[in-house]
Design goal:
A hairpin with a 5-residue loop joins strand 2 and strand 3. The chain is an alpha/beta fold. The protein is built from 10 helices and 12 strands.
Length: about 250
């Protein structure tokens, strides 16, 4: 092995040793981004939402003091990749993310996503019963929030059609507004997100439709994601609390 490569490895290991870590007795900084109904900021700045509420109960049961902080989605993964001692809520587990992060047991399972589009374009979607056929047709463009995952199976499928996906550095509310202005033709959405999303977007619900696709799998499980500098004993305590407060969702996948 070249001497220069050894020096780079030693520098990396030294940097990792200098990073702070979180022990079970210290507050855990929990990062989230705006993604109702799972997590969002109230007018007074407090975190709220379906998964925030679940996580709050779990952290309390585990005796972990959690400090929630709003951060843009790309910054969250950057902080976790660089070893900042933080966690974040509601992430899908993917092989790529497992290389730089640890994951909790599942805290929530989505209902299967569907294809969300303007009702006035319903005829364009009628011929397609699978997402694969829709993407392969090349006739319709999909919008997607850059950096987010739809789970390993859908991610792998979409990777075959990069030229038919419009990557958006924004949130789901922005996706709705871009859908209305024909920047793309559809995006993927689980049914439980529709009501809150349309309310946040201030658009008429009757203008939109959601179509199920037969090749879209059971909804993906969402997890707490941790930097690898977070103490493993803390993670185990949180997992025990998940089993106590939520149950073993792995049996429902």
């Amino acid at each position: 092995m070249r001497a220069g490569l050894w020096k780079n490895i030693l520098r990396f290991l030294s940097a990792m040793l200098l990073l702070p870590s979180v022990s079970p007795a210290q507050p855990l900084e929990v990062l989230y981004f705006e993604y109702p109904p799972y997590y969002h900021a109230l007018p007074d700045g407090r975190a709220a939402g379906l998964i925030v509420d679940l996580a709050g109960k779990v952290f309390a049961k585990a005796g972990v003091e959690a400090e929630f902080r709003f951060v843009p989605v790309k910054r969250i993964l950057q902080d976790i990749q660089t070893g900042q001692p933080v966690a974040s809520l509601g992430w899908f587990k993917t092989p790529e993310r497992e290389e730089f992060a640890r994951f909790s047991l599942p805290v929530y399972i989505n209902r299967p996503v569907g294809v969300f589009f303007l009702r006035e374009k319903e005829e364009l979607f009628r011929p397609y019963e699978t997402l694969e056929a829709l993407m392969a047709s090349g006739k319709l463009r999909m919008g997607r929030v850059a950096g987010l995952s739809d789970g390993p199976q859908i991610d792998a499928m979409l990777a075959r059609y990069p030229d038919r996906i419009v990557q958006v550095t924004a949130d789901s509310v922005r996706l709705v507004k871009m859908l209305k202005t024909d920047r793309f033709d559809f995006f993927l959405l689980p049914p439980e997100e529709i009501d809150v999303l349309l309310q946040e977007s201030q658009v008429p619900p009757e203008d939109f439709a959601l179509k199920a696709m037969s090749d879209i799998p059971q909804g993906n499980s969402r997890h707490i994601i941790y930097s690898k500098t977070v103490d493993e004993a803390l993670i185990r305590r949180v997992d025990d609390a998940i089993l106590s407060e939520i149950g073993d969702l792995t049996t429902k996948q």
